[in-house]
Every structure is written in structure tokens, then in C-alpha cells.
């Protein structure tokens, strides 16, 4: 396949994802276009990775368009900006952690231009994006996914999870479970700290026992106990995702009291601690509630 791909949005995830597309384009004889609202980022990407920095109107002429933007609102804006330039037969793959309702709206809008749409959010963090091992959860038509599957150079695992919007729903619930596990680990460790227990060895025990989670194994010790909180995934973005998960719960008429409470906790944390902080900094709110640092 020698398609021209376009990647819209060169943030912490988008930059390495687009780099994998550029590498594949060189190997397959295709072209990899990139666009970012801040044009200097696209220019730098082209210089470093061999992609081509372009305008939105030029990106619209690609065979496969990828977007990876903060929210579905920005995707709506970009769709509107280049809608008139889109070609029938194009596939739009949205890797944003978006809203299922937005996916259905965007798919219908693009279908009017003869463009197929897949909601295809990713999981694996910046490390997975750099390594090209991201898990991609895809909503939309299975046949459309099979057409673009060979182009997903940033993926280690691709799973079709259902119709349009299903990818965004799965991603939101996945991130809500991240939030649940992170907060639960923080609650337990804060209580132990207040009880006079040494937190570091306690965490070591938990991570060798049934209470472990990805959050306890890979986040709390490296970010919270060290007080470093390096910014890789914003707290505001996680709060947004947990909010989408809560919308999924409400839309399904389901009962999920833990997820609903987690939505409230992370919205509060984003307000009190700061939406621009790393998501693990949510535990600073928990520390304030306990009058005790987790360290």
C-alpha cells in the first residue's frame, strides 16, 4: 500500500505516532503529511522524521486522515475546516479520546462527503507511542478497518470493538478504571501512612500481592512517592475521560456507583490540583483530605 496519510495533531502522543507513519511511508513508497495548529511543530516533525508539513486543505487530500486532538470539540472544528476539500473514498481515523455521541455525529457528517469514519483511540501512553506498540480499540465498520489496518504503524494490537462510538466508549471506561485504581491505591497508602506504616515497603508488598494494579506497579512508586509527578497525561484529560465514561453509564441506564463517584473525585482534583498537572497528581487532593503525604 502506498497511500498518502495525513496526521492532524502533534501532541505528546501524536508526534511519535506520526513518526511511525512517516517511517512506514518511506518503506512503502507513500507520503506522510502532518499538520498541527502550531505550524512550527509540524515543520520540526518534518525535519526530524521525514514527514511533510502541510496546510489543512492539503491534508484533506490524503487517502487516510488520522486525528489525535484533545477532545471531540477540536475534531469538530477541524472537520468543519476541511470538509469541503475532502475526497470521496477517504478514511478518517480519529485517535482522539473522544465522546461516543460525537463519533456518531462526525461519522454521519463525513458520510455525506463519501468519507468513512473510524473512532480509534489508543492506549499505552507515550512510551507505547514511541515504541509503536499501542493498543487501538476501533469502532466503526469492520471492512473499513481492514482497509486501513496495514497503515496502523504505531499499533501493537488492534481490536475491533463494535459499531461507531464503541471505540470511544471502551477507551473512556478503560481510563475510568485507571482512575479508580489510582485513587484506590492512594486511599490505602494514605491510610497506612497515617497509621505510621512505612509506605515504600508497604507498596512493595502490595505489588507482590493481590492488591496490585498497573497504577500501584507503574505510577505510585515512580511518581507519587518520589514527589516528581512528571507530566505525561494531563489530569484534566483523565477527568474528561472519566466524565465520558459516566455519560456511557447514564446512556446505557447502567448502575456503576464507583465510576460515578470517581467522576466527581477527578473533576474535583482537576479543579483543586490543576487540570494541567500529571494525572497522578490527583492524589495530592487525597493527601489534603488526609493531612498526610503519601511518601
Short description:
This protein has 13 helices and nine strands. The chain is of the alpha/beta class and 295 residues long.
Helices and strands in order, then pairings?
Blueprint: E1 4-8, H1 14-28, E2 31-35, H2 39-49, E3 52-53, H3 56-59, E4 64-67, H4 72-82, E5 91-94, H5 100-111, E6 116-119, E7 122-123, H6 125-131, E8 134-139, H7 142-148, E9 155-162, H8 166-194, H9 199-207, H10 214-224, H11 235-252, H12 257-272, H13 283-290
Parallel strand pairs: 1-2, 1-4, 2-3, 4-5, 5-6, 8-9
Antiparallel strand pairs: 7-8
Helix pairs in contact: 1-6, 4-5, 8-10, 8-11, 8-12, 8-13, 11-12
Description of the structure:
- The chain has helices at 14-28, 39-49, 56-59, 72-82, 100-111, 125-131, 142-148, 166-194, 199-207, 214-224, 235-252, 257-272, 283-290, and strands spanning 4-8, 31-35, 52-53, 64-67, 91-94, 116-119, 122-123, 134-139, 155-162.
- α8 (166-194) packs across α10.
- It folds into 2 domains: 4-162, 3-Layer(aba) Sandwich (Rossmann fold), CATH 3.40.50; 169-290, N-(1-d-carboxylethyl)-l-norvaline Dehydrogenase, domain 2 (Orthogonal Bundle), CATH 1.10.1040.
- It is an alpha/beta fold and 295 residues long.
- α4 links the parallel β4 and β5.
- Helix content is 54%, strand content 14%.
- It is built from 13 helices and 9 strands.
User: Which radius of gyration do the C-alpha atoms yield?
Assistant: 20 Å
Helix segment tally: 13
Please state the overall shape, judged from the principal axes of the Cα atoms.
globular
**Helix content class:** 40-55%
Overall pLDDT, averaged? 97
